[in-house]
Structures are given as structure tokens and as C-alpha cells.
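testing teh design pipeline on a random one, pls ignore if ur not involved
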């Protein structure tokens, strides 16, 4: 658990990011390639990104440079997400180029401590290596992050509107209490329950920048160095409705599975178990398993008629299919 300690000055200096931070989004998006957690919420993006990067020079750079540099683990280098990133991609990349070589080398060594200076990533500390890194980050952002800009901004605007209401109704105390179960506000400490490390951060008058992130998933993230300007990157709330709006024709299959989605669609006009099996190309036993799951989820209704069982959509099932086109 991470515990962030506030003073009265820190509460006055706590604020919410106005725009997506491109360097934090790059970091979190690279983590999405390294796990299936949250894949349903990023299914279309993941598919398009893999297609875009496949068999390209950029794709090879992602595999050999970026993924090792951004491990989905307890630590990845702080220098990759400088505070200047809040002012845009160009400002953030310039900040990376301007960092002292010693700091970059020290943070990279923490990824592979056993290799020390022999780590292949060690070359990034030198100016030429960092120039290659920033060019790769810029190309990656253009290829797989920029296409999501409108959707990211829409979700961020919605999040800011909600948090602004919490702030207006309850002040900073109301804002911090409104984040739900992942962030637990017990004045003067904000507890981050899903954090990868057990430690304390004292803001000491610097305040806290709250950064909603499109690609962050479940676990809020902060900087490893407590001496840096402090941020808390947390996942934008996502729901099935958000996913349906983003990619309706794939949403049902992504959320409940392809075979189950076929059974659900086949119930649109009412069908018996054997009819569903023929329409979906599945065995009767498999269909029975899927209909039981769909019924328990409230998506279909099943009623016995003579020696057969007739399955029909509920209102919830109709709404789900209607939104999915």
C-alpha cells in the first residue's frame, strides 16, 4: 500500500491534469502489451497497434528497446515521465534529452541490476542514445497513441467534469473521497490500495498532480523517487458502455466471448436449445452451458415449452445487442 501524506499547503496545491500526459500514456500503453489484464477495455486498440507495428522498423524498436525499458514490474525509470510531459510531447521529450547522463544511467541500472554497465539499455544514457530513444518515442506516439486522441480526450473531459463537481460540493476533501475503493482518503493520508510497493510519500508542500490515464489499468502509479514533483497516475473509470461506444461490433464478443455472443445474437428472435446449436454451430451441451451463463447475467430468459426450452432476450440483452449494432 502506498501512503501519501498531505499538509494543509499540499491540499491547496492538489490539482487534476487538464490534458492526457503523452509520456505517461506511452508508458502505460507499453504495459498493455505485456499482460492480458484489461485487454477487453483496449481490444480494438491492441489489435490495431499490433497490426500497425508488425514487420516494421518501429515494431522491432518497440520489442528490443521500449518494452525492456518499460517493464511491467515494480519499477521503470522515472526519467521517462518528466513533469514537463504535462505541457505536451515535445516538452517532455526535450526534458528527457536535457537530463544529466549520470541520473539516466543510474535509473537504467535499476532495471537490470545484475548487468550493471553491461546492460544493452546502458547506451541510452549517452546523448546519442537518448536521441534515438526520443525519436522512437515520438514515432510510437504518432503510430499508436495519436489515433486514440479523441476518445482519450472525451473520457478525460468526462472525468474532469465529475471531479469538478466533487470539488465544488466538498472541496479538496470531497475530491479525494470521491475516487472510490482504489484510493482511500483518511485525512491527512491518501492510501493507494493497489500499489505495487508498501511505502510512504510526504509531499512537504509540493502538492500532488492527479493524472487520469486512458491506458493505465487498475493499479495507480507514481514516481519511484520521492524527491521529484509528485504525481499520481490513475486509470480513467471504464465500463462496458464505454467499450461499446468505442468498438460496438466487437464489444459483445470481447466482453462475453465469441461463442457466447453468437448464442446471445441467435436468441434475438427466440430459439430452442437445438435451434441455437444449429445457428451457432455448437453442440447442445455447449449451448446449454452458454444459455445458463447468459440467463444468470440477466441477458436472456428461458422458459420450458412442452419438451423444449425457449430462449429469448431480456430488455438488458436487447439493449446490449442494439448498442453493438
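output:
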Amino acid at each position: 500500500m502506498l501512503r501519501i501524506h498531505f499538509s494543509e499547503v499540499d491540499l491547496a496545491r492538489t490539482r487534476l491534469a487538464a490534458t492526457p500526459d503523452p509520456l505517461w500514456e506511452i508508458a502505460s500503453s507499453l504495459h498493455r502489451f505485456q499482460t492480458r489484464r484489461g485487454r477487453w477495455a483496449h481490444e480494438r486498440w491492441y489489435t490495431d497497434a499490433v497490426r500497425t507495428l508488425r514487420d516494421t522498423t518501429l515494431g522491432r524498436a518497440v520489442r528490443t528497446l521500449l518494452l525492456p525499458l518499460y517493464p511491467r514490474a515494480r519499477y521503470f525509470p522515472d526519467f521517462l515521465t518528466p513533469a514537463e510531459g504535462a505541457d505536451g510531447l515535445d516538452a517532455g521529450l526535450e526534458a528527457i534529452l536535457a537530463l544529466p547522463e549520470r541520473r539516466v544511467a543510474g535509473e537504467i541500472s535499476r532495471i537490470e541490476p545484475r548487468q550493471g554497465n553491461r546492460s544493452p539499455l546502458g547506451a541510452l544514457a549517452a546523448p546519442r542514445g537518448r536521441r534515438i530513444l526520443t525519436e522512437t518515442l515520438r514515432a510510437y506516439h504518432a503510430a499508436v497513441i495519436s489515433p486514440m486522441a479523441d476518445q482519450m480526450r472525451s473520457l478525460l473531459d468526462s472525468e474532469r467534469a465529475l471531479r469538478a463537481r466533487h470539488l465544488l460540493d466538498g472541496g479538496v476533501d470531497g475530491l479525494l473521497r470521491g475516487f472510490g475503493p482504489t484510493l482511500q482518503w483518511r485525512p491527512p493520508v491518501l492510501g493507494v490500495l493497489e500499489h505495487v510497493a508498501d511505502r510512504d510519500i510526504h509531499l512537504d508542500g509540493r502538492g500532488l498532480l492527479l493524472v487520469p490515464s486512458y491506458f493505465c489499468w487498475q493499479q495507480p502509479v507514481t514516481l519511484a523517487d520521492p524527491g521529484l514533483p509528485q504525481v499520481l497516475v490513475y486509470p480513467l473509470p471504464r465500463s462496458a458502455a464505454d467499450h461499446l461506444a468505442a468498438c460496438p461490433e466487437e464489444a459483445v464478443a470481447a466482453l462475453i466471448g465469441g461463442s457466447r455472443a453468437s448464442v446471445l445474437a441467435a436468441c434475438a428472435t427466440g430459439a430452442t436449445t437445438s435451434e441455437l446449436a444449429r445457428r451457432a454451430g455448437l453442440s447442445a451441451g455447449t449451448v446449454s452451458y452458454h444459455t445458463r451463463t447468459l440467463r444468470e447475467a440477466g441477458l436472456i430468459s428461458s422458459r420450458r415449452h412442452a419438451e423444449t426450452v425457449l430462449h429469448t432476450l431480456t430488455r438488458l440483452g436487447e439493449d446490449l445487442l442494439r448498442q453493438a449494432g
